User: Fold these one by one.
Assistant:
Number 1:
Amino acid sequence: MNLFPYEPTLNLLPFDGIANYYGPILASCEAQDYFEALLTTVPWRNDEAVICGKRIITARKVAWYGDSSFSYTYSGTTKIALPWMKELRTLKSRVEEKVGCLFNSCLCNLYHDGGEGMGWHSDDEKALGQNTAIGSLSLGAERKFSLRHKRKGDSASISIQLENGSLLVMKGTTQTFWQHSVPKTAKIAKPRINLTFRTIVLGESRRVSRDG
């Protein structure tokens, strides 16, 4: 149960950033249709990370899309953006209409069940620029999403349940001062797809020919 109302103007963070929860922006049947379409048509691949010089393959799967063949490097690995699918382009427009800004890329995440999650991190790579917005659209299983202040830690933290079809937006200095995570849980047996719409700053990203 969420303690926060569906009020997009309400800042969930007490300071040093902005996080707005819009609640579900898709009807449950519509969200289910998009979930099933993306689950079967996106070329999901296991994510990779380089930690202390060791390459880790995650159970969680990802796909990276964009207006152009942007390269995006995070956790020591680089991905090249795929051209937009019809469903993703439509959802991007829906999110842009709600948020009031444009996005040029999307990192898609597939969590097969609650045994897969995301540890504490910030989306603060140079390619994302500074103080840009990230629109996070959730499809499928409801999952807990947590934020904690980098300096104050658990003494300044919040958690919210991201519902099927819901939109969460992080902007301002959130990535500079806060970390976020998707905790693992044995209580969730169903999959979730998370679409994180982003803005790649072209000066910090390399365009790669789709032919080479």
Number 2:
Amino acid sequence: MQLLAARRQSQKKLPITVEGLSYSYKKLKVFDNLSFAAERSTVILRGPSGCGKTTLLKLLSGNVQADRVLSMPTSENSCLVLQEDSLLPWLTGTQNIVLFAGVSLEKVRQHPMYEMIANFVGQKACRLSYGQRRLIELFRAIIYRPKYLYLDEPFNFLDEKRIELILPFLQGEFMSDTCLTLSNHHREDLSRLGAATVYSFDGCFPVTQLSKS
């Protein structure tokens, strides 16, 4: 029984490990034999715009295929939230959540984060502000609870107060079975996410290693 419990505990959160990743976009070699192993289940990618953070998230989530890689996380049961709005504009926020997260309306309304979107989630996405749509996208990803959740600059269009309200939902029981990897531009204080492995991009190509900070 103890062995089984330990095995289940070890399978709860799988670290992000990449070995021998190479990828080129057009004539630019973005990654060249990149390897890294994050010992924590929360990973933060820092660096300037255009340094490769978004591309790495796309590769990890399986939205872009590597030219060559020896080992990386499975893309099965993963979720990527990009900076670009991905809500279907002709559907309401609620419909976007129920349809793509595969959860019931009752479960949506019972979620502790629901009160943050309750006042506008019933409107069509095309009528919502950027900040409102971003909150719905984050809610949808959190309630889905994938094995791997990848967030690309998740706090764009959100003020500091909203960010503070969201951070608790990206840790603890809400992420108990999820490995979280997110990118950001150094702006936000992410200490409330708890223990995390932080990697920095220097902005030079090809990326052959990541600096741990």
Number 3:
Amino acid sequence: MSDGGTVLVTGSSRGIGRAIALRLARDGYDVVVHCRTRLADAEQVAAEVRSLGRAARCLAFDVADRGACRELLEADIAAHGAYYAVVCNAGLTHDAAFPAMSEEGWDSVIRANLDAFYNVLQPLVMPMVRRRAPGRIVTLASVSGLVGNRGQVNYSAAKAGVIGATKALAVELAKRAITVNCVAPGLIETDMAHEHAPVEEILKAVPAQRMGTADEVAAVVAFLVSPEASYVTRQVIAVNGGLC
């Protein structure tokens, strides 16, 4: 059990983000729950966090909107202080075979996944540094960013970029005792997985022969956020049942 401060979890109104928010609350952190449009869902997650004895508040903005990110995050920090940790989980997919991929299909995925790395973290890093205390940044990538997936050239490019950016930021912040790591899930049991992935086909390639759970991803994130992970930085941890 920690009492380490506040963690912002982007995209935490459902799925993996929700599981991360609740796991961190159980581990003793206050949580800033984030959504783009599902404010009612975010408020429900915040209520669950409070039921676990931790403080929670909600922020609603599009991680692809640079101006909105800066405005709302700077205002939240001014009101409540810098975060101990940030978990960059929000993102989206827009799958298509590359010859049929539209400009919007490419741009929207790059904006919501790779540009969001800058949009969310750039306003937050110096406030974290000025805390003069240990901090944690965890990004969520994907097996797509490690090996590339058919029909996901855009998503694979974005998540590979997130991995590279994570490693570079880790080097910059290491001497400040702020660790920066990446978790790369494989096929995880969420609504999004069933909407967009050929589940049965992918399962044939998973040595564990099953889908993972959001709680299993959250457990790895929780370790990286914890004080025990103070000497773990610049790493990519795959949670994929041995897929790659």
